[in-house]
UniProtKB/TrEMBL annotation:
Protein name from the UniProt record: Phospholipase A2
EC number: 3.1.1.4
Native species: Dinothrombium tinctorium
InterPro entries given in the database record: PLA2, PLA2-like_dom, PLipase_A2_dom_sf
Gene Ontology CC annotation, any one: extracellular region
Pfam families (alphabetical): Phospholip_A2_1 (PF00068)
Reactions this protein catalyses: a 1,2-diacyl-sn-glycero-3-phosphocholine + H2O = a 1-acyl-sn-glycero-3-phosphocholine + a fatty acid + H(+)
Cofactor note: Binds 1 Ca(2+) ion per subunit.
Range of residues in the leader sequence: 1-18
Enzyme class: hydrolase
Entry keywords, A to Z: Calcium, Disulfide bond, Hydrolase, Lipid metabolism, Metal-binding, Secreted, Signal
């Protein structure tokens, strides 16, 4: 049985169509949920094969305090998904989750007890990371990071 959860990507069966008004797919593969920002890096490596550091400070919108006009299709998608989750804003970059890389190109998230706010949040964050990795996996690994054009002071503050 497949259950749809509003998150931030439009998904049709197992195909990700990176759109703005979107919905994540509750996968049929499950485990117990746990996460950190390092798990996003692992998910990107598993699903895309790209070096996750290529996306650190990518564009204007990716990451904490992202803002401005997205520089391309990759920029902004991930944080938008976080906006649709039921997680408290301060936890979206810190909440752990459990996931498994079944094989290159296939990462799966653990299950969530929807009576537990923390487990629900963990699962939703895992799905955001998984769907984001699938979305960017449709494109070649970036050779260089697009620049945002914001001041170097803001850039330094944002860790880019």
């Amino acid at each position: 049985m497949l259950i749809f959860v509003q998150l931030g990507f439009f998904v049709a069966s197992d195909e990700v169509i990176c759109e703005t008004n979107v919905t994540s797919l509750y996968t049929k593969y499950h485990k117990r949920a746990k996460r950190s920002i390092f798990q996003l890096a692992g998910m990107i490596k598993c699903i895309t094969g790209c070096d996750p550091m290529l996306y650190k400070g990518y564009g204007c919108y990716c990451g904490l305090h992202g803002q401005g006009v997205p520089v391309d299709v990759i920029d902004k998608k991930h944080d938008r998904c976080y906006d649709y989750s039921s997680c408290p804003h301060l936890l979206v970059y810190l909440m752990p989750y459990q996931w498994t890389c079944l094989r290159p190109g296939l990462g799966v998230c653990g299950t969530a007890d929807y009576n537990s706010i923390n487990e629900k949040c963990s699962y939703q964050l895992c799905e955001c990371d998984r769907l984001f990795a699938q979305c960017i996996g449709q494109y070649e690994c970036p050779r260089k990071k697009p620049e945002c054009g914001i001041s170097s002071m803001v850039y330094t503050f944002m860790g880019k």
